[in-house]
Amino acid sequence: MAAVSTAWFCGCLVGAGGCLPPTQSAADCSRHLLMSERVLLPLPVGQSLPSVVHQFQLPLLMAAPDGELPWMEKCCVAAGQQHLLEKSHSVEKTAEQSAETSPSVVLENVEGCSAKYIQILLENVSGLAADEDFTVEMIPELNVAVATFLKSIDTKEFVKKCVQNKRAKKFNITARLLEVTCSIKAEDIPDNISPDSLRVYFENAQNGGGPVSDIQLCSDENSAIITFCDHKDLNAVLEKQHLLEQTPISVHPYYHSLGTALYGEARPVIKMPDSVVVPLDPYIWKFLQGRDGLTEAINKEMAVCHCCLKWPQAGCAQPEVTLCPSSSISEQKKTLIKLIKTWKQYVSTEFSRIMSRYVAIKCKVSSVEWKDVKKRLMKDAGLIIVDISEEMVVIAGNRAAVDRAEKEVRECVEKAMEESEREKQNIEISVSIIPGKYAVLHNAGLEENIHKEYPCLKISYDDTKKTVQLCGLPAEVYKIKANLLEKLLNMPWTSVNIDRNIFLYLLSVDSKTVSEMLFAAKKINVFYELEDDTVILFGEAPKDLIEAEKQLKASLAYKSIDVEDCEITKMMEWSCLLAFLRKKYRSSQETVVIREPIGKENTVVITGFTEAVEKVYQNLCDFIDRNTQVEKEIPAKSVAVLHFVEKEKSALVDELGKKGVTVRFHPRTLRISLSGPRAEVPKGVTVLEKVVSSLYLKDVQIGKPGAKEFFTDRKDTFIFEAKQKFNCLIRLKEEEQQNSENIDDKEERKLHYKQTVQGGVDVLVYKANLCNYPVDVVVNASNEDLKLDGLTQALLQAAGPELQAECDMVRKNGRLQPGCAVITGAGKLPCKQVIHAVGPLWKEKSAGKCVYLLKQAIKMSLHLAETYNHRSIAFPSVSGGIFGFPLQKYVNAIVSAIRNTLEEISGDSSLKEIHLVATEEETVQILCETVKKMFTMKTSSPVPQGEKRGEDLCMERDGEEMITTEEGLCIRVVKKDIIDATTDVIVNSVGTDLEFGVGPLCRVLLEEAGSQLKIEFDKKKGQQEAGSGNVLCTSGYTLACKFVFHAILSPWDRGIGQASKDLENIVNFCLTKTEELGLNSITFPALGTGGFRYPATVVSKLMFHEVFKFSSSHTWKNLQEVNFLLHPNDADNIQAFTCELKRRQIGKGCDAASQLDFIRPVSAETLGVYEMQFGSITLKIVSGDITKEDTEVIVNISNQTFDATTGIALWVFKAIMDAAGSDVEDEIDQYGMLKHIF
After folding, report:
1. 345 versus 1163: which is more confidently predicted?
2. pLDDT range class, residue 1204, cuts 50, 70, 90
3. Strand partners, 146
4. How confident is the model at residue 880 (pLDDT cuts 50, 70, 90)?
5. What does the domain layout of the chain look like in residue ranges?
């Protein structure tokens, strides 16, 4: 009865037909119960329907509305009441069917197990034999196996045994009964067969069929699933051979729970679909390769379709993509067969859809406009652009990006065509406008206003021609020209008279830059131009001119500094400070021009923006005050006052000494002198004057007999008691007078001869004692060990032990060689310092060498005095006594060395007096005669015959030195100002920034030649290449020359770059150009030795070398004279060029060469590196970085507190400290804290 009720319930669920839906088996339907219209409730298997109905009947009947039948009765009505009244034999038949058990068992999770393994496992479980008692059909796509028992067994019991089997559990194999099916699968049915035809065919008794409940056609497989009402009808159908419309068809039992039919041994093998090859556009393929992650993203998308992609090689000319089935397709189980049949179409469609996102197009472009468009398009990450030809490109990438690019290219081409058409009609004209007026119009929006009205009209300004270029249609161009001329005619302007220094500043700077800083920054639309000596202002409105004039006068200023001591401007620290300030304010917005003294001038002028000028002025004033040496005197009433201040106020004197102030007491003249930096001396004078004025002096007359003897006997006691009790000093009047007389006796000296020589220097011969000689510096004749003994013992006694102590400190660095000199303090001597000159021991066999070394010692002594800014120097018999020199040879050597050295030192030298001091009358007389003879000789005396060779000649005349090459080219070293040059060509130097009028040389030429020189220079620099090593040629204008060659130099690179080569090219070009122009003479300054920091020795050697090289390697007819012009105050360059001139002359003289045989060159001369052997010492001069030197010791420059803050010491100190590291800095700090020790 339970089975009947179940079937009836299923009939209620599926409708009046009483048949199950094709997708649901009777067993499935028997497990559910319709609760209401929308609720499906489960029906437990094995439980009879009445029991289920009994459980739910009461609530269901209570929920039914009044007047309605219970839901069970409604279902019965809907299903047909006649089904409930079937005959008893139908019920019995159904009960019999339900009672049957399926002979087949499904084994699941058999992946990896072979059919043989499954057969053995089943044999072990059942005890039956495979093939004889049961068959096994493997369904690999479902990972299941179906065992069908040929022998009747209890399959339910068999399933339980399988579940409990250890082997089955180990491999996770499960077992269940296969349902009794009512369906078959008919395959290979004819196309277009209808379900009715199939129904009729299989219900025909001849075909073994029975009533059919449902038919499902599978047109893609040419198959159908036919479900019968009774499963017993399947046996007859399966046993027959079927022919449908003359087409053989096969039938197999179909199981809905498996989703497949069972074929037995004839189960078809499932074949994987073939790969699909799809052609790929080469440009799209190039795009995909160029974008990271694109191909990986496509691979992921296609993987969802059970497809893996094989992409072509990178350089493939005809790329193709292969679509291959992935391993995941075999995991689809029930849908595998259907998936395999539709896979090709599916993946092809999906791949086409994905690739439709990308597109490649060919575009025709204009080569002119395409460059700009291409730059913009290349920034788009969704594109690649490939040039096929000059006029054809391919754009590939994302469809949206390509569409945008195509639109832009199309617009570009259309624009190019329009412009090409317009270009045919365009005309170009120019309108003359000076830069100032154009700047005003530009700031007023000239170009913007024109382009608003005529967007295609082109307007530009030519700085070299000073014209506005207009290009466009004729009507547009002429209308704009008329408007421009009208604006120029009505533009307001005014002239402003300013100081000459400010005018020169404006002349040397860029007017556009300064106008922007002066006016544009203040929103004043005004520009200035220079005409003659006047500043012309152009503006947009009259009120702007008034504001601009106020701004000009308020923002620009100049200040001048009078330099009392011209030697300050020759100091290395001065040059470094100027270079630092120029660099600092040249790179800033507020530029400053610093003009150094020229010729006999002693004024430094700073011009520029007011604030910057004030800062530079303060820096320079501070430097000058620190380095200007002044001397002041304070009168005293008595020697007692001098002694009191000297003894009792020694701490004050020492404090002044730390500040660089030297205090001396002069008992004979009753004066206290202070000398030192101008900034500190007045302060010291004020302090000492206050001390002197605070002292009380009284002369006490004691007329009692014996008072003098009484005081004299107990002098020390009285002096000590007065000092202790009253803090006063008492002295005997006669003692002061006697001391004064003794001082007069000591200082007595007699002048025997005086000669004023070149530069205003006085050479004086005195008979006197050197120990109390009143000059700035005294020369001591010393031995190599600096031991003051023998004839120098008197000097040591007068100076005190401090002098020998300083010499001993110098000696620690090694013995001095003959010809050398060092400078130390003077101890108690009246002079400021002592120079220790080491002369050679006289040897007759090497007389030439001895004389040379003696001259070197004299020369070095004079240079040391010059270096330390001394005014007077005294020489004793340096080697005439202690080293056995013959007297006449000694005197000749010393006077000759003084004369030659004075010729090398400039006329503005600090050294004004040279004293030759001797105590013997004979020596004094020989000195007088020799000085008279040597300094009255004509400076143009001929060179000894032994020093001439061929046509080479070196001579001195009228302050010039000359040498002639073997080819006859005359080379002169001339000492005078550049503006006094009278040659056909003058060579000037400018920096790579091409700022004309900045350096001293350039500024002097500009002032002398006038502004036209700068105007032509500016024009030339815009017409030709203007880099380092190039030369610009202009006229000389009001200069005495015909042409000025402007050499463009870069700063000195320490010989490691191109600077030396550029200088060589410049000299050679200037010589060649002079010859080509048919000119006879050219003047070179010492190129690069000023602000460019080229070493004077390097420049002199290089320039002489290039002139001699030009003379020997060129066939020249016109050039006759080359002048190297040096400023009279430029001692370094004068020495370098003079020495090089003499070196070249000496190099050709046999005698001179033999005299220098003891000086041995260590290495060949190379620019930037020099080595020379002096005895056992190798002197090496190298340009480079001191922090990179690998010597045992390097010398740093600092002050007493080891915190150098000014001058060159600042940069050297900082560079060494940075390279040394923190450990050295810590040690230096410790020394700085102990400054009082030093």
Report:
1. 345
2. low
3. 106, 137
4. low
5. 1-99, 183-266, 276-356, 359-424, 426-491, 501-619, 629-698+707-743, 748-935, 945-1174, 1185-1237
* Cβ partners under 8 Å of residue 605, min gap 6: 501, 558, 559, 560, 561, 594, 595
Amino acid identity of 956? E
CATH class of 629-698+707-743: alpha beta
Average pLDDT over residues 486-507: 88
Q: What is the pLDDT of residues 109-166, one digit of tens each?
A: 888 888 898 889 888 888 888 888 899 988 887 888 999 998 888 888 889 888 888 8
- Choose the CATH number for 359-424 among 3.30.1370.120, 3.20.20.70, 3.10.20.740, 3.40.228.10: 3.30.1370.120
Fold of 748-935: Leucine Aminopeptidase, subunit E; domain 1 (3.40.220)
CA dist 268 and 454 (Å) reads 83
Q: Which residues, other chains included, contact 442 with Cβ-Cβ below 8 Å and sequence gap of 6+?
A: 461
Tell me, yes or no, if the two domains 276-356 and 748-935 fold the same way: no
d(CA 45, CA 247): 43
Residue 1203 CB neighbour total at 10 angstroms: 14
Give the whole-angstrom CA distance, residue 147 versus residue 138.
Answer: 9
The C-alpha R_g of the chain, in whole angstroms, comes to 59
Cβ contacts of 372 within 8 Å, gap of 6 or more:
none
Q: CB-hemisphere CA count at 13 Å for 618?
A: 5
875: β partners: 916
Closest CA to 1019 of 1035, 1040, 1042, 1000: 1035
Asked if residues 927 and 765 have their Cβ atoms less than 8 Å apart, the reply is yes
What's the CATH code, domain 945-1174? 3.40.220.10
Give the pLDDT confidence score for residue 1107 in this predicted structure.
Answer: 92
pLDDT at 877: 66
Strand ranges of the sheet holding 467-472, from the earlier edge strand across to the other edge:
427-432, 467-472, 458-462
Q: Tell me how far apart the alpha carbons of residues 1156 and 506 are, in angstroms, rounded to a whole number.
A: 54
Residue 539 pairs with which residues in a beta bridge?
526
- Residue 378 tokens, joined: 């290349």
Spatial distance between the Cα atoms of 575 and 1000, rounded to a whole number of angstroms: 12
Is CATH 3.40.630.30 the classification given to domain 183-266? no
User: What values do phi and psi take at 105, rounded to 5?
Assistant: -125, 140
**Class of residue 1018 by CB neighbours under 10 A (exposed 0-12, middle 13-18, buried 19+):** middle
Residues 6+ away with beta carbon under 8 Å from 248: 188, 241, 242
Cα separation, 197 vs 215, whole angstroms: 10
Q: Which of 969, 938, 927 is nearest to 951 (CA)?
A: 969
CA dist 526 and 544 (Å) reads 7
**Predicted pLDDT of residue 1019:** 85
Residue 688: HSE in the Cβ half-sphere, 13 Å Cα cutoff: 34
Mean per-residue pLDDT over the chain, rounded: 77
Name which of 1080, 928, 201, 1004 is nearest 598 in CA terms.
1004
Give the whole-angstrom CA distance, residue 1095 versus residue 1090.
9
Looking at the predicted structure, is the pLDDT value of residue 324 above 70? yes
